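Q: Could you fold this chain for me?
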Amino acid sequence: MKNLIIALLSINIILFYSCQKSNEGDYAMNLINSVKEIPLEDFFRNPEMSSFQLSPNGKYISYMKPWEDGNRMMNVYIREIDSDNEIRLTSASERSLYGYGWLNDERIAYVQDKGGDENIHIYAVNIDGKNNIDLTPFENIQARITDNLEDDPNFILVAINKRNARIHDVYRLNVNSGEMQMIAENPGNISGWMTDNDGKLRIATTSDGVNSSLLYRESESDEFKSILTTNFKESVSPLYFTFDNKELYVSSNRGRDKSAIFKFDLNQAKEYELIFENDEVDVYGLMRSKKRKKITGVSYTTDKRQTHFFDEWRESLQKKLESKLEGFEVALTDFSKDETKAIVITYSDRSRGTYYYYDIKQDNLIKLADLSPWLNEKDMAFMTPISYKSRDGLTIPGYLTLPLNYKKNEKIPVIINPHGGPWARDNWGFDSQVQFLANRGYAVLQMNFRGSVGYGRDFWEASFKQWGKTMQDDITDGVNWLIDEGIADPDRIGIYGASYGGYATLAGLAFTPDLYACGVDYVGVSNIFTLLETLPPYWELGRQMMYEMIGNPETEEELLRAASPLFHIDKIKAPLFVAQGANDPRVKQAESDQIVNALKLKGIDVPYMLKEDEGHGFYNESNQFDFYREMITFLNKHLKK
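A: Sure. Below is the predicted structure, expressed as structure tokens.
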């Protein structure tokens, strides 16, 4: 079920990684005489099988794979550990599921919306396919799992905004019948809820947009009381209760630049024991064994994902698997409840991934599936961590991917690919769209410009009210670094991004019109005023924070007008391709309509792809094929000699 919670959270980002040597050698030495052109569809096809999980008792393996009779939408299947006889449990035919998880040994939950509207519903089905029901059958709601109550097979806790679209109340939900009872009513300012190890609701976080408070109660019969209030720039994020349910583990940057893991005294409302810190990056990830009641390690990301173990058993397990699966990153994604069986995945920058089943007691590792067996790792390009200096001296980390047949000192066409968010980051690993572009002869530069998360508070705060300014300068400086390195052909540089990356594309064409030969705007922001006017209702608690980070349209009109590409149409001269989902709840269709219509009035023909069955990014396989097919035709037209 933790995988389902992660799936729900990751929707917020799903649709949108010191120049140094990689493990494979200097990026300029990735040479072969010719590159096999791989069919576009092979990069963007749904995985052969993915998202493997174990039932709590370890008797079943579940996974997602395309249903050939359902327009190749991703659905949930299960089989017994020692059997090849699979059962399809779901019948999604119009839109793939976002994710799923085990509720108990006999029942699975899965999540889905309609056409990308992000009105997430939670469904449940028995492992024999019976009693398949919508547990949250309400109009225009978004459901979130608060706790799967792993020791209670019949109930989970969910947060739903059915009473008030802006806020989520917590309900105790019967997973068999859908009957529910409210157990915590949101007074209007609670942005998150958390339970202890017994499933009791004891922590809440509030926000007024500028200040955040941590609320606590000793038992569910008590009232929540505020024990700590901080400005939103300071983060004390609850991770887990200690195993005696008396204290918390938190990730905190209070009084420091980088977030670190601490024990937190609930009575004194302060961090008192440092568990782990890293001087270079924030640390958020805490690993634990609920069965053995141990904190097993932490995870964090520098240029790649890193782990540090406290638990000898867990560390030895990791080393054993890494020795069996050399040459790849190795991660354990799931355990049976008794920790005798596990699901393992390997991946790299050149491999989308392979899943394994591991019988820990028998030390028996069995391959389950390659995510994309049709892609040969040897045909893929290397993603190399790099860094460069911005014009004001800030170090900007990023990743450079060069075509396999790149020859040193050769100047080639380049795609600049800023990430969305903008308060997110790029990571090292397999990226289908980057590999596709590299296979077609393009270098791809991804940069974690200021504001990208994980690099500490100062790096994050340096982005406040800098849309179109120093944030964009960081992107421009990356382009100039690539030119100075002798890699980029200055006349053949394109920019492509989604969400904030789409905004950065428009800003690049408007504010540095001589730098780019073309741009691709994918669900991007063109007008910051209309973006802020149309926030989803459940983002309302964060409005003031967004004003602090982006700008206040009522008091800083000039700032936002200067940063909005729509008001600088007269400067745009490079060709532009725009793609948009009609049901996008974050960046509304009007954002794309505005920029396309304004450019057409100027006499510029702007190819515009609008998908009626998509939201914030294209999720369905056929729509992805359409988008990348038109995008590569557009890029080749304007960037290839």
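A (continued): The longest strand covers residues 488-498.
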